[in-house]
Design brief:
133 residues, alpha+beta, Outer Surface Protein A, domain 3, 3-stranded antiparallel sheet, flat
């Protein structure tokens, strides 16, 4: 009996600082006068839709973000790299955000795990961005 081993193809390694985060289009973003952001998540599952219809629950879940999260989410528009977001945080908050890069990468990881974020690769030579995730 012969064993066949499949060779895994390696994913190309991307530098997180060069990647461009983009919020998913189904999310609503509301910015308050104080500069804090609230994410509006639609209730889309069958059970959630029934609770909206029958129990008169709100059609959106509101997620209120703090100052740091508000700046990160407001920069996740497909125009700023993670490095640029980190620079904006460092400029506004200084030493309060240290350790900056591990915190920022974990926060973006959580946004992605919740399905709120997708990634664009940095612009290639042709000037087009490709979506990932």
């Amino acid at each position: 009996m012969a064993f066949t081993f499949f060779k895994r193809t390696k994913q190309p390694v991307s530098n997180l600082l060069e990647m461009v985060p983009l919020l998913r289009p189904h999310l609503g973003v509301v910015e308050s006068d104080e500069g804090k952001v609230t994410l509006l998540l639609p209730r889309t599952s069958w059970l959630e839709r029934q609770s909206v219809r029958i129990l008169k629950q709100p059609a959106w879940i509101k997620v209120h973000l703090d100052e740091l999260g508000s700046i990160v989410v407001s920069h996740c528009n497909g125009k700023h790299t993670v490095f640029e977001i980190a620079s904006a945080l460092k400029e506004k908050f200084g030493e309060k955000v240290e350790p900056l890069h591990p915190r920022l990468s974990k926060y973006l990881e959580i946004l992605e795990a919740n399905g709120w974020l997708t990634w664009l690769e940095a612009e290639d030579d042709v000037g087009q961005q490709t979506a990932r995730g």
